Amino acid sequence: MRESIAWIAAALAACGTSGSPPTGAPDAGGASDPFAAQPDTGEGLTDVSADLDAVLEHGALATACADYAKAPADRRLRLLCGKAMFFDEGFGTAGVPKPLLTWAMSSFPDEVGPGFTKLGLIEDPRSSEHVPLGFPPGAKLGSVDTFAFGCASCHFARLPDGRYAVGAPNHAFEYGRMNLILAVLPALSIPGANEGDHDPDALAAIQPLRDRMKADPAIGQALLGALLPLLGGTMPVFSKENEHWYARWRSGTMDFLIQPLPLDDRVHTVSKISALWGMPDAAEREAHGIGSAMIGWTGSTVSERNFLAGFVDIGGGVPADWPDDRFGPLLDYLYSLRAPAPPSSSASDSTQGRAVYVAHCESCHGGPRGMGDHVYTYEEIGTDDAMRWWADGPDHDGGPCCGIAFQPGDLLTHGIKSPRLVGLWAMTRFLHDGAIDSLEQLLCLTPRRGVADPAFGDGGHTFGCDLPTADREAVLAYLRAH
Could you give the CA distance from residue 416 to residue 419 in angstroms, rounded to a whole number? Predict the structure, then answer.
């Protein structure tokens, strides 16, 4: 059972992370500037470019880890190996059955497209099978090959100016709809399937594909061929309630612990995919008095290593195969990622914007790149508090529920962190649940959507909304300059 549904488990875990001195240089008032430029530690790797082949290092990723093994003192090769892991490592987890993924891409060019580009992913130009980037080979499901969910599936995106960026949160990724296509659509094609067993919103989300199948019987025949190798296994099954949530998630968001994941906390929460650039390593956090990396929106995961180890475990991999040193190149590569510079200087780093930030934002966002130094309560922040019970479960007993085993040092916080604020100019989802579409909405310069549904709410965090319009516009320009 664990293997048969691990492709969803790996996906949920994959998406939703310095030995260096503090980089915040004092400003004119003597305070540390959280947005002071970080030193470039990328050893010349290309992590932001309009040229996708350049980002993929012109084919060098294929042998990067083997090359590093021959020259372990070469830092550039170590980072290149980490980059290869970012794009091409499945960590021993099982993924989407290959027959289903290739069937969906070939059968629905207008609705899915090669590389699932119609759902916000980016086609891997190196793949003869047109799979998306971030979908490396996964562990087999019986005798069936799979494509696993890797780091790049959620944390590699095209920026608004057309450049590709490693570490960028893919807020265009329609993860919920992808899973409905790969699970509910095949289930409905099985003889005797009953539409009444499925949520109306989920059915509406995949209706264009059902219409296409009805018009072209060859697609259904091809699906039967794709399902044939999976006979005898267990296909993912959603409750109607959870199908409803899958259908309602906005692009760039998901629940990290939900059916059919074997570790389902039975609480519906929504997390926005986060950026990975500007991450402080342990030494920088210590220099700033921050005792935890606070990975995840609740800040429950204390280190990047713990997150990766948990990903392997939840995704059905073998934790013993991944000692800490095996994660090392990937972690060092992640620490080297920097937020991409804005495409123009129109969002100037103004003196007024900096002054507003210091006076009204820095008390919660004063750490490296604007991160906070502790977890806040929902009473303090006022945002949707469904995330309060993440991993705790419906009984709210204060400990991890449902067989969930935390890594050493991790704990439930029942709160929410304040995230890093670099690269905001490139993002289209704000607040932890991705319910807000712009910084203008965040600072009440334009109306919010007014959503109050639990887990999706766009209320709260109204800090700064009472400032003069000129101050709010100045601080937005300041934030967008970094």
Answer: 9
